Amino acid sequence: MVDYKETLHLPKTAFEMRAGLSQKEPRLLEEWAKADLYGQIQAARKDAPRFVMHDGPPYANGHLHHGHILNKILKDIAVKDHAMRGFQASFVPGWDCHGLPIEVQVDKELGKKKAEMSRAEVRRACRDYAQKFVAIQRDEFARLGVFARWHEPYLTMTYGYEAQTLRELGKFAGAGLLYKGLRPINWCTTHQTALAEAEVEYEDHTSPSVYVAFPLAKRAPGLERDDVDLVIWTTTPWTLPANLAIAVHPEFDYVAYPVGERLRIVAQPLVESFLAAVKAPALDESKIVARFKGRDLEGLSYEHPLFPRRSPVILAEHVTLEAGTGCVHTAPGHGPDDFEVGRKYGLEVLSPVDGRGVFTEAAGPFAGQQVFAANAGIIAALFAAKVLLNDPSDTVVHRYAHCWRCHKPIILRATEQWFVALDKPFKGGKTLRERALAALKEVQWIPPWGEDRIRGMLQTRPDWCLSRQRSWGVPIAVVYCDKCDTPLVSEARMNQAAAVFEREGADAWFTRSVAELFGDDLACATCGHKTFRKEEDILDVWFDSGVSYAAVIEREGLGQPEGPAVDLYLEGSDQHRGWFHSSLLCGLATRERPPFRTVLTHGFVVDGSGKKISKSKGNFVDPFVAIQKDGAELLRLWVAGEDYREDIRISQEILTRLADTYRKIRNTIRYLLGSLFDFDPNKDLVAAGALLPLDRYALGVAKRTGNRIDEAYRAYDFHVVLHRVNELCTVDLSAFYLDVLKDRLYASGKTSVARRSAQSALYLIARDLLRLMAPIFSFTAEEAWEKLPRLNGDPASVHLALHPGIREPEAVAALFAALAKDGEALAKRYDYAREVRRQVNVALEEARQQKKIGSSVEAMVTVFGSEAQLQPLAGLSDAELADLFIVSRARTSTKGDALTVLVENASGTKCARCWLYRDEVGASAVHPTLCHRCLEAL
Description:
By secondary structure, this protein is of the alpha/beta class. Helix content is 40%, strand content 17%. The two termini are 16 Å apart.
């Protein structure tokens, strides 16, 4: 008996069902590196319009975590997509190599040895540490399939970068924006350095809660009594030794109300909450002794309850009614609002705390105590002085500022630091803050709420504190007169020092003399003295990275020739007060425009329950363990599959679900490739006129999906890309078109029009699909592209190809142009037929359940309905309907008012080759078990 199965054209492909990504990906990475695929892509697009994505530098510190992976893959997808749309799209990766995170780790490694080392030696140790982790992280990023200039990244510690950083600082000096001043700044007592706004995290913290009475030294207007107090509320008792005023709001209503043996002045709307806090009897309006407007209290004075000091009552707009008493304890040395209002009233800037967070002699009896530890003693002293109105043990849990590195509470402390002035007019009269707020409208923010977020930060932030009391960074190249201590702040001198940095790096600041750095012609403008000493502070690392567009994009000529240099900045949402913020200020101060056109932000990675991931919580999973097991492609799928505008969840359950999606897409690709085993598109691709209607329809569906994918890429909606790819593969192809095609592909003549038409459609769909997938499925698309028959001129790598519709071969372009003419009519016909097919499938399943049929090919289907209901099917023959329904026979009948399906047994005999039931089976003496079509195929 003949085995006709051997005569069927069953799929054949080397593209395996089992992905084996953990073994295949390293091979592809090795091939890409050997061929310099990134370099090939750049060379192929060297004359094309530019798309400039600027990589924000992660710290060269520690191994990568899921947040790093999310960020770099998002950037990689964006760059690959633009390269495949014909742009010259480079990816120059960078690392932030200076700053506290690295120096702290080096301090731990050096231990006591550090005390015996010079600053230059410590800096060399920091450089070596950073270089080690640059190499580690570079390999980890490359393992993800990210295409970038890995052999030549930018590092903020290279000599050229350090020199450019100093030149950019010089531009601030030249514009008059750089100044040294005494004002409160965020201070980490653990690391003994100033912190930038972006280096502060807010966490829940338990603080003391104290209501303190300050006795009036001057009678309140209209109140002829001496037993009157102003009551303040604070959660930082340690700042009370620095109290120099009490602020009230000029427009608020205040009352004098008896509590205990004295009258207490508080804001009227807060009286009830105040009485509850000090456990006094409930409010009795009749007991209010006097009422005031806040402005009536200005000029009064009070006695400090712990120090022999008399201070004024002042007016301030920052006073609120959210909590407390409406009378605000004011210490200009420990708060930005306090400092500003204190400057208005000419108050001293008192900050009796050293860099370790220990009280100085100016704190009197508390000298030598660490400030947080001193809270208990200060509360006890207030209690002893009978001015503490609530229970000494009262506390409050609130959000409090912590250092981003040591995660310990920080303090606000007035010290002399270098600042960038945000509210000083320059170059035409507008301030840097005004320019920054106006420039936000020039930038596209994705998602749009990013604009409001950064606007709020710009509106309220203090002047930018640039100085850090550390060793590892770019020095603030300023010198001081040895005689009168006047600083020399000069753009020209900074440029001189930058020329030395260009040759020797910023270490030269610590190894070269002032004359070698600035020349030997220095003279103090104030006193004429000619001997100077160098500033020892270094620059805030956010300034280092904030000028990266100048040190990398502009310096290397990689930017756009006109307007902002960079098309896209893409980082986490925390960078609204970090890199986006500093880059914006630097660009406006030195170029009078933002450095970027579009800013895209993503959320943070959290676990499956939405909780922050950390090793201490036990919910951290090393991503490279998963990569070793399942490959990096799954993580690429995870990045693309999530809406990055919100926090992104990751868990084993999520990855398992994505693995199932991946398998479905991979199996669809495998079937496409398997069906093309004997297809050469250069010879076998049929013209549009020869394509069967169903194949033209399928190409139209794929084309429309491709257009939607293109729109999603352009909008950076990568999760929509993945959704569309999955929908095309599983719904339009696997569940419909490929299912219908099997009989035609397997049983038709090898070179028949019917089969070549199907193969032509499958080939074009596969060719487009792989190109559309490539930015996300970088490994899988490449693996499949290697197995795909290619048109002459198609590149060896899918990543060198262009997206569908861009500079297509003439035959392909002509074919799709012809298809567009009847695409709408075909879509209406077959979309309706697919709806009918769903009803037919339900009826076939019922017949199977009732044992009327086994396989669907045993059936004959009749679709009943009105003429109107069946009219959309009029263009389909009975044979085409049978193919669509995967039955042996099908027909329509207008003998019905509602669309119904009748399933009967098909007449005829089962063909031994295609298994369809045909009346003509047995007509051939040679092959008596075959139908006419199968006879022709043989």
